[in-house]
From TrEMBL, chain A:
InterPro entries attached to this UniProt entry: F-box-like_dom_sf (IPR036047), F-box_dom (IPR001810), FBD (IPR006566), LRR_dom_sf (IPR032675), LRR_FXL15/At3g58940/PEG3-like (IPR055411)
Domain (F-box) ranges: 73-107
Organism for this UniProt entry: Sesamum angolense
SMART domains: FBD (SM00579)
Pfam family, one: LRR_At5g56370
Name listed for the protein in its UniProt record: F-box/FBD/LRR-repeat protein
PANTHER family reported for this sequence: F-BOX PROTEIN-LIKE (PTHR31639), F-BOX_FBD_LRR PROTEIN (PTHR31639:SF93)
TrEMBL record, chain B:
The name this protein goes by in its record: SKP1-like protein
Oligomer status and interactors: Part of a SCF (SKP1-cullin-F-box) protein ligase complex.
Residue intervals of the SKP1 component POZ domain: 25-82
Organism, scientific name: Sesamum angolense
GO biological process, any: protein ubiquitination
Length: 483, 176
């Protein structure tokens, strides 16, 4: 019989399987008698073959027999709990909860899920009015937390129908007694939700993300000692609380701040910070001990105007800003932040060049002479730049006073690494052309310059000028995009 | 019915890397099969990488929790992902094909191995693949696909549906 021949090869493996089976079935097994094992394996193998050939026979078999196990009906239900948890964590909460109906084994598999996400996808709620929706949502979260057992590593609450209700206090208190590592709370509408003081005792937190919240840490708050990533958007916090929070999270690596109020000075003291993304209205930014900071994106959402700039000391914001950023690799200067940098003295270049900076993006008003000079200072301080983006910001203001003679500021400067340049929103004014000319003439390995004007007006003139400029790179292509 | 532990390409799979003179090591499965694999491919498994760093067993790494058939599959995966010329797109296509042909039992084996050997990409993809068989599917469908035998009475099922009514909200009862 053919299956006998096959058997020779599979025998050992079957024996191995059998051994496992006997162990799982809690049967006593010596383990030394290979011959018996092989025979058992042989019988089992035969049974398996006949199993498929003779369905009548199958019906006579009691279901508890190992032969049923060996064809491994239902492997998945018997996977270890931590693997099931990981598989189920790929499902939304509602899908995971629905597995409870599969069989008694699955009845409570989902209750150990370490990641709990309540958002619009994982919890669908429909009800005729807002109050009912809210009540339903609250009872769902309560229900899930009541049934849940084991550690909760991640808790995310971000449902468009949930306002900052006091029930959240209760959930946070519950989480604070466990070991939550990741906490995300996004209040989509309504007033800022005032976080309860229990949030500040979640000392296992690694990632904290808050949207539309009011933070008032208690006076004895000693920081989040494990926190590596903090994302605060649309939040209110006072100046001292903000500074204290940043400086007392010693492991903080990533900080995102968008649209905040209550504080106007961004005093960042974070020795391990690598990534800083900020956008909002603020008066000043200063870094202390941020020597590892590598990626910075900073947008000032209000035009500080020229008058205020004079108030700053003679050091100048450019020098001040870069003093604590010796290893910066990527920098995005957004909205009106270049205006801020241009305040005070603008040196020809920074005292210490940003040797690691490979990507620079600048939002600039080409009509503003100070901004032009600040941009030039930045460029001359980045000898190893590989990619540059200049995005024109148009403002309804007359060309500033001495827009005439900045041509002399464009002395040659070698950008020996610069390969890709993008210039967007230009209108063909003189200062823009100075920059384009300057960049083309000083980039020996440039591969591509993309120019996209802000409008159709004067496009043809711009193209004519672009064609004229000498290029240091033989391989550079210039791509002119329609607005 | 072929024995489950067969290698996907027939017996005695010899990974291509064996022919190359690159630094290789031997992985030994629970059932004693030995596979040669380049160090760079093996290093994609965090667990094997740690074992290599500890320099255990002089070039032969025993993997008592992975059978030969599964190990052969895992090695195919690792070799592809360590291939020099393979673009991300190539790998993505490979991953898709690699998993699409697998039966539930095999997926479970590969999931266990991926977790044990700490191959994050593989483990993630396998979990995703398993879950795709559950998402937006009817209970009957899921039971059939995974050969899960229900031991609930109709009454008990109703009770569960009632208890977690919110999880069934908006579910098309005939979805499959």
């Amino acid at each position: 019989m053919k299956s006998y021949e096959k058997l020779e090869r599979v025998e050992l493996r079957l024996a191995e399987k059998l051994k496992q089976l006997l162990v799982t079935c809690n049967l006593c097994f010596d383990g030394s008698d290979v011959a018996i094992l092989s025979s058992c394996a042989f019988v089992l193998y035969e049974l398996r073959v006949t199993d498929t050939q003779m369905p009548v026979l199958k019906q006579r078999e009691p279901p508890e027999l190992p032969c049923n196990l060996i064809v491994e009906v239902d492997r998945i239900s018997n996977l270890p709990g931590h693997i099931i948890d990981k598989i189920l964590s790929h499902l939304s909460l509602r899908d995971a909860v629905r597995t409870s109906i599969l069989s008694t084994k699955w009845r409570y598999k989902w209750v150990t899920l370490p990641y709990l996400v309540f958002d619009n996808q994982s919890v669908l709620v429909s009800a005729p009015d807002q109050t009912l929706v809210k009540n339903k949502l609250v009872s769902i979260v309560d229900h899930v937390l009541l049934l849940h057992t084991g550690p909760i590593h991640k808790f995310k609450l971000s449902h468009r129908d949930l306002q900052g209700v006091s029930d959240i206090d209760r959930w946070i208190l519950f989480l604070s007694r466990g070991s939550v590592k990741e906490f995300i709370l996004e209040i989509w509408k309504g007033h800022r939700y005032r976080l309860p003081s229990s949030i500040y005792s979640c000392q296992k937190l690694i990632h904290l993300e808050l949207f539309n919240c009011l933070l008032k840490p208690p006076s004895n708050f000693n920081g989040f000692r494990s926190l590596k990533s903090l994302d605060l958007q649309h939040i209110t916090m006072d100046q001292l609380a903000f500074e204290h929070m940043i400086s007392s999270c010693p492991l903080l690596e990533r900080l995102t701040l968008m649209n905040f109020d209550g504080f106007t000075l961004l005093n960042i003291h974070a020795p391990n910070l690598l990534f800083f993304d900020v956008g909002g209205v603020f008066e000043d930014v200063s870094f202390r001990d941020t020597f590892h900071l590598a990626v910075v994106s900073i947008g000032l959402y209000v035009n500080t105007g020229n008058e205020r700039n004079l108030a700053f000391g003679s050091t100048g914001n450019l020098i001040k800003f870069f003093a604590c950023l010796p290893h910066i690799q990527r920098l995005e200067v957004q909205s009106f932040f270049l205006k801020y940098l241009a305040a005070g003295t603008i040196p020809g270049k920074l005292p210490k060049p940003c040797v690691d900076l490979s990507f620079l993006s600048i939002r600039i008003n080409f009509n503003d002479i100070e901004e032009n000079l600040a941009a030039l200072c930045l460029l001359r301080s980045c000898p190893n730049l590989q990619e540059l983006e200049m995005l024109a910001r148009t403002e309804d203001q007359a060309p500033s006073r001495a827009a005439t003679n900045i041509a002399e500021n464009f002395q040659s400067f070698p950008f020996n690494q610069l390969r890709i340049i993008k210039i967007v929103g230009v209108s063909g004014i003189r200062q823009e052309l100075y920059f384009i000319n300057f960049l083309l003439a000083n980039t020996p390995i440039l591969e591509r310059m993309t120019v996209k004007p802000g409008s159709m007006d004067g496009g043809w003139e711009l193209v004519k000028e672009l064609l004229r400029f000498r290029r240091a790179s033989m391989h550079a292509e210039i791509i002119y995009l329609d607005p | 019915m072929a024995p489950k532990n067969k290698n996907p390409n027939g017996e005695n799979v010899v990974p291509e890397v064996q022919q190359k003179k690159t630094q290789a090591l031997i992985l030994k499965s629970s059932d004693g099969e030995e596979f040669s694999i380049s160090k760079s491919a093996a290093g994609l498994s965090v667990a094997i990488k740690n074992m290599m760093e500890d320099d255990c067993a002089g070039g032969v790494i025993p993997l008592p929790l992975v059978d030969g058939g599964t190990l052969a599959r895992v090695i195919t995966y690792l070799n592809k992902h360590a291939e020099d010329g393979a673009s991300d797109e190539d790998k993505r296509k490979f991953d898709e094909e690699f998993l699409s042909g697998m039966e539930v039992d095999v997926l479970c084996d590969v999931a266990l191995a991926g977790n044990y050997l700490d191959i994050r990409g593989l483990f993630h993809d396998v979990c995703q693949r398993i879950v795709n068989g559950m998402k937006n599917k009817s209970v009957e469908w899921v039971r059939k696909t995974f050969r899960i035998e229900s031991d609930f009475t109709a009454e008990e099922e109703e009770q569960i549906k009632k208890e977690y009514a919110w999880a069934w909200e908006g579910v098309d009862s005939d979805a499959d």
